[in-house]
Design brief:
Layout: H1 4-9, E1 15-17, E2 34-44, E3 50-59, E4 64-70, E5 73-83, E6 91-98, E7 101-108, E8 113-114, E9 120-122, E10 125-130, E11 133-138, H2 142-149, E12 155-156, E13 158-169, E14 173-178, E15 187-193, E16 203-207, E17 210-215, E18 223-230, E19 233-240, E20 252-259, H3 268-274, H4 281-288, E21 291-296
Length: about 300
């Protein structure tokens, strides 16, 4: 079997403009709701230090909660259970000393409202400070809470969202909203796998109800990439659905969207492999991708 980078590097120079692809009827099926969402933020402090803060929202029939990790150190993770038969941690504060960083987390999820996914839509706040500099301030109540909870003189750190991962289980349609540039508009990304009446399962990707990519005979084209053009940026769209066709019938599939710096730049994953950064490839996949979707197959792959 070919290695991951060689499969992803094929077709890397093919560009299609989402605004010129021709409107296509987007999937009419209701998309599956995510069971977990992981957002990773990079903080740049005034001391020139950097730290990665990840928030993982999860939901299951028995529990719902939030886990915060810092620089990938799961041993020092802060786990908040917001719905459980055993206990709940709906509001509070926690101080953590980690690798020379003084971290404080303030949260209140007691009035949070949820829809189908694991993330609250309003009625909450989560505040993270590192070395007395405020980083991610999430929720509609964050501004008010910051004025009450944080020490006077707390300065804002430079921080930005570097990746968003969504994990699904259910049907064959997945949907998410994302921005491809920090000041750009939000776009709806929709992925549909399979197809009624087709001899072979296929894959179609829409952005704002415009088809930007179609893959036929997905059983054979289970891994690859295409480059699309959105908001003036080149975006590498990579997929790996090998887990759907390996005989188990319930394997994972992965879809990644990542912006490029220019027309002639290498495919990001290929560049890592060429530079010998093989050990960090999967860290980059998880924490360097702009949008990372992972799903469990629930449509028939026996065709």
């Amino acid at each position: 079997m070919r290695d991951l980078a060689s499969c992803f590097s094929e077709h890397a120079v093919q560009v299609s403009d989402a605004s010129c692809s021709g409107a296509a009827a987007a999937a009419t099926l209701s998309p599956s709701a995510p069971t977990a969402v992981v957002c990773s933020y990079r903080l740049s402090l005034s001391s020139q230090k950097q730290i990665l803060v990840s928030l993982a929202w999860c939901r299951s029939p028995l529990s719902q909660g939030l886990t915060l990790t810092f620089d990938g150190d799961h041993a020092a993770a802060l786990k908040l259970t917001t719905h459980s038969r055993l206990f709940r941690k709906l509001k509070g504060a926690r101080s953590i000393d980690l690798h020379g960083f003084a971290i404080e987390v303030h949260w209140d999820l007691s009035a949070a409202r949820y829809e189908a996914g694991p993330e609250p839509i309003d009625g909450f706040y989560v505040l993270v400070t590192v070395d007395s500099e405020i980083g991610p301030a999430l929720g509609d109540l964050a501004r008010e809470a910051a004025s009450r909870k944080l020490r006077p003189g707390t300065r804002p750190a430079e921080w930005c969202l570097v990746s968003r991962q969504e994990h699904f289980t259910g049907g064959s349609v997945y949907a998410a909203r994302t921005r491809f540039r920090e000041s750009g508009p939000a776009h709806e990304v929709r992925i549909q796998c399979g197809g009624v009446g087709e001899e072979q399962p296929g894959l179609t990707v829409w952005i704002d109800r415009k088809a930007v990519m179609r893959v036929k005979r997905l059983r054979w084209n289970f891994r690859g990439n295409q480059t699309i053009f959105v908001d003036g940026l080149l975006v590498d769209l990579m997929w790996d659905v090998h887990g759907w066709f390996n005989g188990s019938g319930s394997g994972h599939a992965v879809f990644m969207f990542r912006t490029r710096s220019g027309l002639d730049s290498r495919l990001w994953l290929e560049e890592k492999m060429v530079n010998g950064d093989r050990e960090n490839v999967y860290w980059g996949v998880c924490c360097g991708a702009l949008l990372f979707l992972s799903g469990l197959l629930k449509f028939n792959t026996k065709n």
